[in-house]
C-alpha cells in the first residue's frame, strides 16, 4: 500500500511509529524552579553526536496546566538541565506509571515509587538504580512543525554507569534488558546482540 499522511492511512491504527522501531526510551528527569522533581518517559529519543556527546528527545502534546508543551519541557526551559535515565526490564512498570498525567506540582519519582539520587554536574535528580544516566545541559529547544512539537537537544556533562552492566570494559545492554518502544502499545526488551565490523575496520 501507499498513502500520503495528509490523506490518512485507512488502517485501524497509525503505522508511523511502528515503522521507526525499536526506539530507545529516554526516561527524562527534570526539576522545576519550584523544587519539584519530574520524571517522564519519551520514546522519541536518541544520541545525535559523539564529540561532545549530545542527545535529543522530542516532546509532543500539551498539558492544561502548562503554557506550552509538557512538564519536562517547561522545567528544562526554566533550569537549562535534564537527565536521561536508561530503562531496564525490571523498571518497566515504574516507567509506565510515570507516564500518567500528573499535575505539574507532582513528584513522579514518589508517585511511581522510583528511588532518586542526586546528579553530580547538574541540579537535578536521577533514577538511582538505572543502568545508566546521562546528565545534560540543554543546548537548544527547537519548535518543529505541528502543534506542541518540540525537540530538546542537550550536551552530556556527566555519565553514571552501574558497575554490574560493565562486561570486559563495555557497557552491555543485554545484562539488564534495555527496554525499547515499538509501535502502538508495544514494547520490546533487548536480550541479544551481535558484532559486525564496518568495511573501514
From TrEMBL:
SUPFAM superfamilies: FMN-binding split barrel (SSF50475). It comes from the Bacteria. InterPro entries: Flavin_Rdtase-like_dom (IPR002563), Split_barrel_FMN-bd (IPR012349). It comes from Maritimibacter fusiformis. GO terms for molecular function: FMN binding; oxidoreductase activity, acting on the CH-NH group of donors, NAD or NADP as acceptor. Transmembrane segments: none annotated. Signal peptide: none annotated. This is Flavin reductase family protein. Pfam families: Flavin_Reduct. Residues 18-173 form the Flavin reductase like domain. The lineage of its organism: Bacteria, Pseudomonadati, Pseudomonadota, Alphaproteobacteria, Rhodobacterales.
Amino acid at each position: 500500500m501507499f498513502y500520503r499522511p495528509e490523506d490518512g492511512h485507512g488502517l485501524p491504527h497509525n503505522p508511523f511509529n511502528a515503522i521507526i522501531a525499536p526506539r530507545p526510551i529516554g526516561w527524562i528527569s527534570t526539576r522545576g524552579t519550584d523544587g519539584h522533581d519530574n520524571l517522564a518517559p519519551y520514546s522519541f529519543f536518541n544520541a545525535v553526536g559523539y564529540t561532545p556527546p549530545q542527545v535529543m528527545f522530542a516532546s509532543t502534546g500539551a498539558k492544561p496546566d502548562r503554557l506550552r508543551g509538557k512538564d519536562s519541557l517547561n522545567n528544562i526551559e526554566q533550569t537549562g538541565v535534564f537527565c536521561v535515565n536508561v530503562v531496564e526490564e525490571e523498571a518497566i512498570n515504574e516507567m509506565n506509571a510515570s507516564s500518567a498525567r500528573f499535575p505539574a506540582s507532582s513528584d513522579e519519582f514518589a508517585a511511581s515509587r522510583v528511588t532518586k539520587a542526586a546528579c553530580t554536574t547538574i541540579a537535578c535528580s536521577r533514577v538511582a538504580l538505572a543502568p545508566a544516566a546521562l546528565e545534560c545541559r540543554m543546548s537548544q529547544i527547537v519548535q518543529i512543525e505541528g502543534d506542541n512539537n518540540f525537540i530538546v537537544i542537550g550536551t552530556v556533562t556527566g555519565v553514571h554507569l552501574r558497575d554490574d552492566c560493565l562486561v570486559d570494559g563495555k557497557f552491555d545492554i543485554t545484562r539488564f534488558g534495555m527496554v525499547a518502544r515499538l509501535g502502538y502499545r508495544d514494547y520490546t526488551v533487548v536480550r541479544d546482540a551481535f558484532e559486525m565490523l564496518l568495511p573501514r575496520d
